[in-house]
Amino acid sequence: MFWTKTFIPTLRDDPADAELVSHKLLTRGGYIRKLTSGVYNYLPLMQRTIHKVSQIVREEMDASGAVEITMPVLHPAEIWQKTGRYETAGKEQMRLKDRHERMMVLGATHEEVVTTMAAGELRSYRQVPLNLYQIQVKFRDEIRPRFGLMRGREFIMKDAYSFDVDEEGLKVAYRKMAEAYFKAFKRCGLEVKMVESDVGVMGGFAAHEFMVPVTTAGGEEVILSCNSCDYTANVEKAQSVPRMDEKPREEEKKQMEMMITPDMRSIEEVTEYLRKPAEKLVKTIIYMADGEPVAALIRGDREINEVKLKNHLRCLELEMAEPETIIKLTGANVGFSGPVGLTGARIVADHEIRSMFNFVVGANKDDTHIINVNLDNFSVDDWVEIRNAEAGEICPRCAKGYLEAFSGIEVGNLFMLGTKYSESLGALFTDEKGEEKPFVMGSYGIGITRTAQAAVEAYHDEKGIVWPKTIAPYDFHIVPLSWNSEKQRDIVEDLTGKLEAEGFSILIDDRDERPGVKFNDSDLIGMPVRIAIGDRGLKEGVIEVLTRHDMKMEKVPVEKAAEMAIEAWKAL
Ligand code: ATP
Ligand code: MG
Description:
Blueprint: H1 21-28, E1 32-36, E2 39-42, H2 44-64, E3 67-68, E4 74-76, H3 77-83, H4 85-89, E5 94-97, E6 103-106, H5 111-121, E7 130-139, E8 154-164, H6 167-187, E9 193-196, E10 206-214, E11 221-226, E12 232-234, E13 257-260, H7 267-274, E14 282-289, E15 292-299, H8 306-313, E16 318-320, H9 323-330, E17 346-350, E18 359-362, E19 368-373, E20 382-384, E21 403-418, H10 420-425, E22 428-430, E23 436-438, E24 440-447, H11 448-458, E25 460-461, E26 464-465, E27 476-480, H12 486-501, E28 506-508, H13 515-525, E29 529-533, H14 535-539, E30 542-547, E31 552-557, H15 561-571
Parallel strand pairs: 3-7, 15-17, 17-20, 27-28, 27-29
Antiparallel strand pairs: 1-2, 4-6, 5-6, 7-8, 8-24, 9-10, 10-21, 11-12, 11-21, 13-19, 14-15, 14-16, 18-19, 21-24, 22-23, 25-26, 29-30, 30-31
Helix pairs in contact: 1-11, 2-6, 2-11, 12-15
The site of adenosine-5'-triphosphate (ATP) has 15 residues, from strand 8, strand 21, strand 24 and helix 11.
């Protein structure tokens, strides 16, 4: 492909709204262009990479025994109402009305559609196991669309849905998907970790995420991993087992005492003012759970885990209470809430507080805290784990190793759904004994566009993108320094012929630009191997072969150039 015949609008400057290096590079490299928030054009180079990622995923899905279909993007709202997700999906769901004023939904995922189809078509245990997948656009009205293709409102996903007669069957399907995912991501050049995750709104009973670990700001998820066994979980899910040496020592209970803490609201302010360490404080955070007030208590130096709290409360919506609600409930402004004398809210406390003595809490009175509070000074409705596990804690699985934290990008996930969807949508089969039962289902997603961008987040340098060779838009980038030179053009033609004959794809920079511009653009767009042809080299009968990842350049004889370039590509 000639540069002038395709469309690669490279830019000199970073886009103003880009925070992530991958977002900047894809925009500057002429791969993507934003239409509106979270909605992007995929330009020719991006299109080729998306195609390659999709094809790898497709091949591994096919190899696993799954079969490809295409389901509609446009769904009637009724099927979502039947499973109850019309409500739980809430504002993230894109909705519209048709000309008959019927509510329609743009697909964010396809459990409802595939299960409705199964309800109509599958009858017998003989028709399964069956795993149906598609690669298709999805719509989600994300609260914070950001990071380019990472969190879009329109994006491409591979989604698969398995149907089995029992849990054993589901486990087999699940394992097959996990294996296919490892293979697919590896072929895309990505190292991934399979991580235990929370089942969330999918409402199943087991779930895993596939994460690309990154050291850049691109890692939206925090993952905890044991340094001794294979326990790996995301922070939403990871269980916390505090170290024994961190448990507060038993103390003699002292008398409660009110302390004036003028305008001291934050943990830092209060600890400094009262000269108490944060682990001697108990934070009280007021939430509204489906409209009911809940006071969540955790140790001052810990982070609350809203997923664990929400799972415990089994509520649909969990939000921090508004300042007015807090005043009404506690009688004080935000920052001075506490459990002592608090009525009108369910009090949910983190386990860790059980072993605390003489701690500090808000007094439910402006500018006031209480010191030397003990457990007999208030009552707790529920004791649960509602805090984040942290690096350095003991592994909840092997109890020997310690947890280490790293950040990652979620590129795929697996859910054991069970019978939630088959029951609500009536996807039933008759078993060998003639009994009618709901199918046992799993669902499995890969973010195709997010995976493509995650590769850039994982592989780049200060000059630009460094594509893994399997998903680069082109295998070779040929850069003749002057397209006016007939000799250079002849060599390009000869090289291209030889490389294409071996099945490689080639981008040729036929622009009338200065060499510096061509090289900068070439570094930026990041094809794995570059072949540069200039008059000076040709005088000595050589051209330059450069591997992008290490920027190593070799001068090779013109007649051996194709062969040596292929060798360099193969060695990557
Ligand atoms: P997240 O926690 O990042 O919001 P999710 O749990 O909502 O992801 P799923 O509904 O399971 O994700 O979707 C399957 C895959 O689709 C994810 O693993 C991710 O790779 C991709 N994905 C999800 N949301 C987006 C989005 N807004 N933009 C791009 N890709 C996405
Ligand atoms: Mg999401």
